[in-house]
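Bumping with the actual sequence this time:
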Amino acid sequence: MRRLAVALLILAVGVPATVGGVLPAVLMSRFRAEVPPLPTDIPAARVAFRSADGVDLVAWFAEAEAPKATIILVHGASGTRGDAYVGLYGMMRDLLGRNYSVLALDLRNHGDSGDGPRGPTFGPDEGRDIIAAADWIKARNPGRRIAAYGISMGGNAVLYAAAVDPRIEAVITQDTYALAPPVMRRGLIASTGLPDYMADAVLWSARHFWGLADGEGRGIEVAPRLGARPWLIMQSVSDPIVPAADAEALAAADPGARLWSTPAPAANDPLLLEAGAWGSHARDYVFYREAWIDRVGEFLDGSFAVLFG
């Protein structure tokens, strides 16, 4: 009986401590990952600048031979400017090949960039980083035109930035959600296997004690502010983290948006098996590179055709 009482005491103390402290701490630490080395064939330089609210930011900048515009390339949650999972270095090569310069950014609380005044907000604070990137581009070349391409959380950040910054003339979002909290919950469960009730407890603790502010990521509310801006919405129909309904809702919020739904990969596709529980989320480029080059290239060329047809 005494052993049982000790075991129950350990559970009573240990489980809340784990769910309320250890797991949320691990969750918050997962946002910052190491940036993979830049491949030698990409002519990029490391650059640094600061956001309006004082966060130090780091990016790769690669200039095209005859640039039509500069694309601000933005990773998703827990990614970096060189995220291999989504193929960011490949995207840089292909955009440079279409004569688009690239500024690949580490958002605050990610990669080599500094910490923000709070944890990830899944859109609003990160949007300030994209505006700072646009400031850096315009300071170097006032006439340079700008587009922004954001993946998952990066897409929400792009929406927040473009909603207030008309210098961002074209927007591309990939597997981007309408509201962040449900996606954060699905992602946590997919990556950890935690039961629903425990995942909810971890997220509650992360929000109330560890600075996670995912409730502020509400792209559906800022999407209508893009006006007539060209906007390509890319969404995998089989994404287990961001449902296709989110992309449809975003497209409905802006009648000028174009929706490109990428098909589900084959169940035995090695790339899908490698992805595990995350499946096709944020991997449109990896699965469909040739189609990506055509669709994204045509969209950008059409968006900047006034001067660079």
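The tokens above came from a reply further down the thread. Residues 1-20 have pLDDT under 50 and may be disordered.
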